[in-house]
Amino acid sequence: MTTRVLLTYADYAAIPNDGRRYELHEGEVSVTPAPGTRHQLVIGNLYLGLRLHVEAHGLGLVLLSPVDCILSDTSVVQPDLVYVEGSRVTAVSSRGIEGPPSLVVEVLSPSTIQIDRSVKGQLYAKHRVPYYWIVDPERRTVEAFELSGDGYRSAGRLEGDAARALPPFPELALDPAAIWPR
Fold this sequence. Notes:
Radius of gyration: 16 Å
CATH superfamily: tt1808, chain A
Number of helices: 4
Oligomer: single chain
Strand content: 25-35%
Structural class: alpha+beta
Helix content: 10-25%
Mean pLDDT: 93
Strand order of the largest sheet: 3-6-8-9-10-11
Shape: globular
Distance between the termini: 54 Å
Number of domains: 1
Order of helices and strands: HEEHEEEEEEHEEEEEH
CATH topology: tt1808, chain A
């Protein structure tokens, strides 16, 4: 019988910086390639819109990857974008975000679709992240999910050309033309 070795934050922090993206999913290392330029343009556009809104209304912090979200000693993730509401900004430390942020945003890439839609969604639910957005640049959609029980339920979808607000930002109508690169 083989004993599975669970890695911890200390093991994760000791991984040399070699340009790859490492995460820790329930004690197992996950490595993904660097995202492509379209991915980066989309997340940059979302970041600008969210950051301006959050700062203008004093709602907390919006952080762009890479930033560690230390969900537990054996689960450390780097969402593409993270929002931490004002009442939780003390969770931001020199290591990253200690505990669940208020919102995580994952932009799908061909190499991360399975991880983002299942593995990370389950991790976020287990660690009680209230909101989770999945951004699909190919389909030009943003799916918003809200924590409900042990998983997520659909809480809204941005698609087409009409601006729409998604939770947790009821006052911010996201404009698709400002998100998707031309």
